[in-house]
Amino acid sequence: MAESSSERSSKPSFLGRGSYTEAVRIGQILRKETVGGALLVVAAVVALVWANSPASDSYFALRDFSIGYEPWHLELSLGAWAADGLLAIFFFLVGLELKKEFVAGDLRDMKKAIVPVAAAAGGVAVPALLYVAVNIYSPETLSGWAIPTATDIAFAVAVLAIIGSHLPSALRIFLLTLAVVDDLLAISIIAFFYTDEVQALPLMLALIPLALYTFLAQRFRRFFGLKASAAWFILLPLGVAVWALVHASGIHATVAGVLLGFAVPVIRSQASGGPNAGPGLSEIFEHRFRPLSAGIAVPLFAFFSAGVTIGGWNGFTSAISDPVGFGIIVGLVAGKPIGIVGITWVVTKVTKGELDKSFKWIDVLGISLLAGIGFTVSLLVAELSFGPESTDNATAKVAILTASVLAALLASVVLRLRNRHYRKIEAQESVDANQDDIPDVYQQEGNRQEQ
Known about the structure:
Largest sheet: 2 strands, parallel
Radius of gyration: 22 Å
Number of helices: 19
Strand content: under 5%
Structural class: mainly alpha
CATH architecture of the largest domain: Up-down Bundle
Distance between the termini: 40 Å
Number of strands: 4
Low-confidence stretches: 1-9, 269-277, 445-451
């Protein structure tokens, strides 16, 4: 018996339009990440050219130059400062964004959250399993299983900008959610699987400034009123103290960034444009830190991490045919789309849902291929897996760069094929017949934004 229209309309819809405020917020974030992605690509290219030039010794000397205060365990190379310090800013924003999504974003609705969260989990599990399958007979390289699990949102958005894709807001939100949940899983993996020895005393001491930071952040308006400068004067030193103590404990210091991000309050009325809307602490921090992360922290990390001596064509072919390199490439280029598309299909079938009528499964494939760009966090995990000076780390870097480029090219082909369709959706989402500054499609029955 054929389904009635009422039965079809009652099915949960995946990739449907969310609220207009969410679409606007995600659009603003991705526009900022586009600039950061371009800088990231430039920094990586400069590092690669320098590391393979006659002046390569000067690049490695710069990367390995140490600075800092040894009694506090903070005498680190510039490369380590970039990985441990600057990336903590990036992961602070990850924690902030994830909390905002689940407190005030569309993902606070479990029906909307289950598909992208499950897809992100599939996009982590399948690449890891494929890497393990390739390296199963090489126990010394199995520690790199988490390298192909990451997604670099800045690099991915830069690719979208380069190919001129008119990706609709629903697909952009799906991509950002995949990347943010992916990063949370990555930092959890780093905390649990890449921590050799934990020093209990510094870790316990870190709880003191973290608790004070959380207390003051939650009562931002009571203690500081609307003066953000007063909050900065107290909260920033507390955050630095948390970072330093977590670093001294032996846990990777980027974990501190996520914890500090989670501690910042998100007020639903502020994030959704309610009657009491105004710049809360999360909005203030995001406004201040996102340019610093996208414009400085991530590009500098890419510069100090992407530099690897390839050794010509023979060195390149040797790297990508090595179990480490081949496992990473298979994981990112094939594992990501298999995991994301496969789990998305399974969840929609289990929940008896369906794709929004505006999209097809090829659109999900295009996003999943784009998620195979695993640049920044993959480079970090590679260093943690094998050590910065190891041959396997150099092999991993070549494979990560290769896989990211391949994933970008494949995603570009798929998304460009659908670009004409995306233009039509973009045109529909720009119509505002009643001139109330909210596109009409966001006000249709069953798709109204929150007021």
